[in-house]
């Protein structure tokens, strides 16, 4: 899906005639800001962030005539799954196990589900590939669900705002140079608009048939920020600095 075009940036400056600056105090040199001379600039930035977490669910079960046999069959596989994940650096707190034991006709049925949270997607693939190789059809592994932690989304918002502020300053600097002026300190910085949206929604195949990279792409988050800023305008631009 084509990304929406960022809002057009408005750049305008008001360079009013102002009286000549007063002489610099003793011990101070360089241009002084002229009262009432400002440059008003607005600009935007758009950033994206891939998901930083993935949740994988593993289901397994056993139906036996004896209750102990059903429990033992599932327990052995649960221990192997937990051991394999720990060996590859998955913390214990990132694994959750739920169990369900029931009587079905004349047999006992034991079912379990293991949910594992991964922050390293390469490690996730290694664990899943190993379990498929060793356990085969004795375990069912769902496709990974990718998502963002609240901290990751908050970081994306801040980065978009900071990037928009940087764009407005660069534009203000270009405007001042166009008129041979020197850019001063910011007088006002205001974030006027923020937007957030998810990844692609028009992928050609069903969600269950997506590749790993397509799932990551589909879970990618986007954020944009539009900022308005007012900077003071100093006197003439220092030609020496311009040459550096």
UniProtKB/TrEMBL annotation:
It holds the Pfam family SIMPL. The keyword Cell membrane does not apply. Keywords: Cytoplasm, Nucleus. GO terms for cellular component: cytoplasm; nucleus. It is found in: Cytoplasm; Nucleus. Belongs to the IRAK1BP1 family. The gene is Irak1bp1. This is IKBP1 protein. It comes from Mionectes macconnelli (McConnell's flycatcher). Its main location: cytoplasm. One of its GO terms (biological process) is immune response.
């Amino acid at each position: 899906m084509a990304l929406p075009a960022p809002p057009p940036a408005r750049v305008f400056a008001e360079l009013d005639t102002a009286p000549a600056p007063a002489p610099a105090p003793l011990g101070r040199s360089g241009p002084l800001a002229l009262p009432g001379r400002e440059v008003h600039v607005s600009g935007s930035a758009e950033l994206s962030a891939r998901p930083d977490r993935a949740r994988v669910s593993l289901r397994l079960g056993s139906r036996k005539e004896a209750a102990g046999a059903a429990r033992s069959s599932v327990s052995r596989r649960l221990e192997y799954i937990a051991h394999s994940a720990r060996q590859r650096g998955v913390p214990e707190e990132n694994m959750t196990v739920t169990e369900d034991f029931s009587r079905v006709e004349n047999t006992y049925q034991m079912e379990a589900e293991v949910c594992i949270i991964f922050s390293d997607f390469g490690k996730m693939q290694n664990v899943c590939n190993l379990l498929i190789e060793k356990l085969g059809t004795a375990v069912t592994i769902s496709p990974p669900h990718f998502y963002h932690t609240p901290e990751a989304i908050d970081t994306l918002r801040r980065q978009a705002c900071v990037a928009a502020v940087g764009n407005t300053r660069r534009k203000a600097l270009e405007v001042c140079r166009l008129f041979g002026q020197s850019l001063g300190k910011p007088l006002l910085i205001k974030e006027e608009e923020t937007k957030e949206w998810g990844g692609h929604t028009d992928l050609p195949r069903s969600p269950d048939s997506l590749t790993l990279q397509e799932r990551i792409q589909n879970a990618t988050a986007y954020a944009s920020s539009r900022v308005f800023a007012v900077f003071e305008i100093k006197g003439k631009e220092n030609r020496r600095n311009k040459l550096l």
